[in-house]
Amino acid sequence: MEQSNLKIKIASKEEDYSQWYLDVAKAWDLFEYSPTPGCIIFKPKSVTLWETMKAAMNKDLSKLGVQNVYLPLLIPMSFFEKEKDHVAWFAPELAVVTHGWWKELEDKLAIRPTSETMFCEYFRWELQSYRDLPILTNQWVNVMRWEKRTRPFLRTAEFYWQEWHTLHETKDEAKQFALDILFNVYIKNLQEQMAIFWVAGQKSESEKFAWADMTFTYEPMMSNGWALQICTSHLLWQGFMEQFDVSFLGREWKKEFPCYTSWGLSTRSIGWLISSHSDQKWLIIPPKMSEYKAVILPIYWKENQAEVDAYIKNIWESIIGKIEGDWVPVKWEYFKAFVWDNWDKIMSDRRDARFWEKITDFELSGYPVAIVVWQKEMEAGLCTVISRITWEKVQVNVSDASAQVDKFLSEWQAELFRRSRERLEKNIVPCRSLEEVWKAIEDGKFAIYEWDKSDNNNNSKFESEIKERFKATTRCIPNPGQLKIIDDFELKDKDNIKILVARAF
């Protein structure tokens, strides 16, 4: 067992990965267990991570014309029963309200596991003519799915997500919008904000969403070699619309059915951040996701507090610009520190504490950069900027602090993304037999395997066997052009396809 200066025990990442994950999440105060089975309490820091992602994505969604809505949490069971695959897919996971108004309900109410059926009802009211298309909607909500084996953030009965649902006049328009969403929202935010690299591809027939013609998934590798389905997109096309009688009057004055797509990204992404970027001791957060970009660590003596505060103000203004109005420290209980009255992304730890306590708390915080102020540095107009990821220390003039902070932040963001990509590149193994697949899985790697896409019976048998023997699943049919190791895997039959296999949460 590892032990920090704060006496918080962190299990060995190599020896007990599952416990290490829980220890890091608890040490950073991201969650608390709840009395509700399978559910957790999302504490302020995890909510901040989710809200940061939410704000960035909302900004990009609005540029594409997507509007936010909120649909009811309770969905009539009769909606689910309109589509037999729908019931079969969700039946084991549904939480159902059976009683209300002191009596048993005739039409039971499911607590939202997803919202396709409810959106269909909404679309029936909104869609009349081709002139109403496209309809581009999104909602940020909680969902409920009973889970037997849970783990904070990675798999909980209740979780939070965004789900957008769109209708289009033609398949070509739907596909084009899907590409816009992929590149301008998902890739932009997950890669640029969260420093995630993944393998994207199409789900197999058995793994796709029950109602979808096609399901696409985005699968990064966690630091233990497991896959995590971080987000999905479903092309439901017109068949689903026919089932729920969502139609419009077309350009030829005939009844037509729109093309339907749905997408989702959940708080599982927080679990990925914890498991993939963090080191043995503490959580590491990408700078663009961090609540605070830098923490100023002044060293106080009773007789110099006013002098130090004035010096901190100079550092502050060199980074964020001149502070207008009254400059009054406000207590920030959560970090046991102080921030300045104007809300920004820098924090100053003004506690009367020893330096090692402050630097240890900074290490625990996961924040990217520290700015240390010593008495001798004040006399020379200097400060020391420290990178959390490399622990590189650079002494600079106060006027140069902003440039050095920016340098460390950009280097850190790029380095985390490089590590995420490198992890995938080095841990995908070409396999020609089940035995080779087994070895790759046991070694904590992804396997790339050849499939005869026309032989559904044999493919189903393969999927059943790897699930039973290896506790692994087919993750996706990877898109070309992502990783050289996948592109270079030669198929014995050019009509066959490549399938990615891994263990997954």
In short:
One of its GO terms (biological process) is prolyl-tRNA aminoacylation. Homodimer. The chain has 505 residues and is α+β, with helices and mostly antiparallel strands.
3D architecture notes:
With 505 residues, the chain is α+β, with helices and mostly antiparallel strands. The chain has 3 domains: 2-72 and 113-277, Bira Bifunctional Protein, Domain 2 (BirA Bifunctional Protein, domain 2); 287-421, Rossmann fold (3-Layer(aba) Sandwich); 428-502, Translation Initiation Factor IF3, CATH 3.30.110. 35% of the residues lie in helices and 26% in strands. The protein has 15 helices and 27 strands. The strands form 7 sheets. An 11-stranded mixed β-sheet has the order 5-9-10-16-13-12-11-26-27-25-24, sandwiched between helices. Strands 20-17-21-22-23 form a 5-stranded mixed β-sheet, sandwiched between helices. The protein is globular, with a radius of gyration of 26 Å. It starts with a strand and ends with a strand. Mean pLDDT is 86; it is low at 1-6 and 322-343. One of its GO terms (biological process) is prolyl-tRNA aminoacylation. It catalyses: tRNA(Pro) + L-proline + ATP = L-prolyl-tRNA(Pro) + AMP + diphosphate.
